[in-house]
Amino acid sequence: MIHWPALVSSEQGADYACVAEFNALEDQRLWPGCRLVDSEGWVYLLSQASDGDLYWHRQPELVSLLELNHELKRYAANLGVCCTGKLAIRTLAEAFALVEWLEQQ
């Protein structure tokens, strides 16, 4: 069960979006391999069933904040944000706040 809100990213973490609820996923461009990190830290990968239906498959481990921090720095740099080396998240709440801030830039 996905706990909302969640962060959604491409499989390489090139872009991020904060999604408040399941229905808001309709506004996102999603394809197999996209990743979702829910508000409790569980990681889900968008997978495709043999009949073509897409579904979120929960991974066995929680998100690595270190890895997420690196991805968010790359994302911010791609948006043209300066001084990304100083960006540091220590909690999921900080990651959500950073993505929401970056969405407004």
Give the count of helical stretches: 2
Q: Which sheet architecture does the biggest sheet show?
A: 5 strands, antiparallel
Poorly predicted sequence stretches spanning 5 or more consecutive residues: none
What is the domain tally? Answer: 1
Helix and strand element order: EEEEEHH
Pfam families: DUF4144 (PF13642)
InterPro entries: DUF4144 (IPR025284)
Can you give a write-up of this model?
This protein has one domain. 26% of the residues lie in helices and 27% in strands. It contains two helices and five strands; from the N terminus they run βββββαα. It has helices spanning 65-78, 92-104, and strands at 6-9, 16-19, 35-38, 42-48, 54-62. It has a five-stranded antiparallel β-sheet with strand order 2-1-3-4-5. Helix 1 (65-78) packs parallel to helix 2 (92-104). The chain is globular. The termini are far apart. The model has no long low-confidence stretch (mean pLDDT 93). InterPro entries: DUF4144 (IPR025284). Pfam families: DUF4144.
